[in-house]
Amino acid sequence: MIIGNESRRWLLLVISLLLTIQLRVNSVNGLCEYSFIDRNKLYNFSLASPLPRFPHGVLSEDGFYKVMVNETALWFQLCDGMIFNHDPPRCVKCSDCGGPSHCGMKCSALVAENAGGYQVCTTIGQVSSTNVSVIDKQNPYKGVIVRMSNSGKEHNCSLSVSIICDSTIVQGPNSIKRLGTCDYATVLQHPSGCATIISVHDSGFGWFGTLMIIIVCLFGAYLLAGTVYRYFFLGVHGIEAIPNLDFWASLPHRTQSLFSSLVRKFRGPSASHRSFYSQVNF
């Protein structure tokens, strides 16, 4: 079915809503979903959805990602909390992320820095505070940013992970960038950063065609309701049950007369209607 601009926009909004509902029902990791509409295209990102080579999507199969730069260590998991079956964080001040015996198990991002020979941990991300945004709306194919944050007693911290769309390989994270007192960023290349695109072609009836369809539907509803009322309540049977039958029957003749008058108006009086007078000499 071919539809107009406004109808296409509503269609894309409905598709976006249905995709969001479906993904949130089918996946506990619905917080890592994002979609937006641009130029008659729906861009949908579902980072936790399974891919042929990655059954857990962008989530690390180890239960966590780890980056080491100098004496700073960063642990995080995307779209879920961290799980450690090996190499767990060993640092002090981990009370808001599982405590010393389960450090890292109650948050989604943790950073550790060396302070006087001890690794001091700071929680910088919670699962409940995860949100997704596109890196560049002018270039939606580039990927998305997953941002996690944590409001602590001393600092408000965050971790931003840029997931670059790459359909061929997975690379990173290999670096840590410190953006502020307690704000960090890193980069990951992954196929899950590529959007699923639904396109509606730019052709159709437009607003005029949509208006005509609405008028025809309203006219049909009027005739149906009037006929039913006259048949069942007024006892009018046969073709006379159609409301305003005389008007509809005369409509072709009225239209023809109107068209003829318009033609005469634009063409002027025809030769058959001109009056000829013979010259009279006095």
TrEMBL record:
Coiled coil: none annotated. The keyword Lipoprotein does not apply. It is a single-pass membrane protein. The chain crosses the membrane at residues 204-225. It comes from Durio zibethinus. GO terms for cellular component: Golgi membrane. Residues 1-27 form the signal peptide. This is Uncharacterized protein LOC111310095 isoform X1. It is found in: Membrane. The keyword Ion transport does not apply. It comes from the Eukaryota. Keywords: Membrane, Signal, Transmembrane, Transmembrane helix.
